[in-house]
Amino acid sequence: MSDEIQMNQAATKRSRVTRSLAVCALLLVTSFVIRYSSFAGEFAEGTAAYRNGDYATAARAFAAAAARKPASGAFQNYGLAEWQRGRKGFAVLAWERALWVDPANAAARENLAFARKVDQLEAPRLLWHEVASTWLPVNAWAWLAGVSFWFAVAAVILPAVFRWKRRGWQQASAALGLAVFLMCIPAMLGVGSRAQIGFVLESNTPIRLTPTRDAQTVTMLNAGEPARIDRTRGNYYLIRTTFGHGWVERRQFGRVCPE
Questions:
Q1: Going by C-beta distance under 8 Å and a sequence separation of 6 or more, which residues neighbour residue 30?
Q2: Least C-beta-crowded within 10 Å: which of 100, 130, 156, 169?
Q3: Quick one: which of 108, 104, 37 has its CA closest to 68?
Q4: Phi, psi for 142 (deg, rounded to 5)
Q5: How would you classify residue 40: left for phi > 0, otherwise alpha for psi between -120 and 50, otherwise beta?
Q6: CB-hemisphere CA count at 13 Å for 237?
Q7: Neighbouring residues of 125: CB distance < 8 A, sequence distance ≥ 6
Q8: Counting Cβ atoms within 10 Å, is residue 224 exposed (0-12), middle (13-18) or buried (19+)?
Q9: pLDDT of the residue at 199
Q10: CA separation for the pair 88, 182 (Å, rounded)
Q11: What DSSP assignment string belongs to the chain?
């Protein structure tokens, strides 16, 4: 009798766990569908508004879509809408973010080249490991590093665990995995340092000597000019550019890494 009671309790417990897992899976699928539907709706709204020449509405819709799901296409179209509105700094930042998400976005690259040629803007000066980090999407480097590391570990440990005979291909596999992992490290460092690059959003943006509104102006920057963030204090960034070094308000400067 006690065995039967224990079996019933175990069956009830399994049933509860199954129901809980099913509910969790349903919630995950539902949230994904809702999020994708919202993104698709905002993207479609932005496309329709852009075709109708309503660039302000298009920019808001594409910005909302990009905030919901940082997709290269959403940033690309957001940049086009902002360029049509005359907000060139926002357009440059959007196209840089499109390349941040997808370095293979040729349209965003061409738009940036055109904008910089028209407005005589500089491109960010990248170090060698930052250039390497642009060869793949930023998230791909972490995945590649993780897979290659555990591939190398498995190639070393599994033969000993299962008492397989040592083969040359096992050592070659371990060496290959380790080599790929080591190659990923500079690129991941480049991703981290590139995340501190940003762009001036407004024309005639003052760079100040101290992080206050009454501070002396060091120089004025045009919309779309690149800079690197050294540190943050309150509502100000301390930035470095080829034209000077000083403080700029956060609202006038956008980081390439979407926050």
A1: none
A2: 169
A3: 37
A4: -65, -45
A5: alpha
A6: 22
A7: 226, 242
A8: buried
A9: 97
A10: 39
A11: -HHHHHHHHHHHHHHHHHHHHHHHHHHHHHHHHHHHHHHHHHHHHHHHHHHTT-HHHHHHHHHHHHHHS--HHHHHHHHHHHHHHT-HHHHHHHHHHHHHH-TT-HHHHHHHHHHHHHHTPPPP---HHHHHHTTS-HHHHHHHHHHHHHHHHHHHHHHHHTTPPP-HHHHHHHHHHHHHHHHHHHHHHHHHHHTTEEEE-STTEEEESSSSTTSPEEEEE-TT-EEEEEEEETTEEEEE-SS-EEEEEGGGEEESS--
Which residue's entry shows tokens 């340092």?
A: 193
Query: pLDDT digit string (tens) for 176-229?
Result: 999 999 999 999 999 999 999 999 999 999 999 999 988 999 899 999 999 999
- pTM of the predicted structure, to 2 decimals: 0.81
Residues in the chain: 259
Closest C-alpha to 236, from 218, 252, 256? 252
pLDDT value at position 15? 52
Token readout for 148 is 């290659």
From CA 96, how far away is CA 112, in angstroms rounded? Answer: 8
State the amino acid at position 139 in one-letter form: N
Residues 6+ apart with CB under 8 A from 132: 186, 187, 190
Kindly give the parts of the chain with pLDDT less than 70.
1-38, 259
Yes or no: say if 227 and 199 are a contact pair by the CB < 8 Å rule: yes
Instruction: Name which of 157, 160, 92 is nearest 123 in CA terms.
Output: 92
Tell me, what's the pLDDT at 27?
37
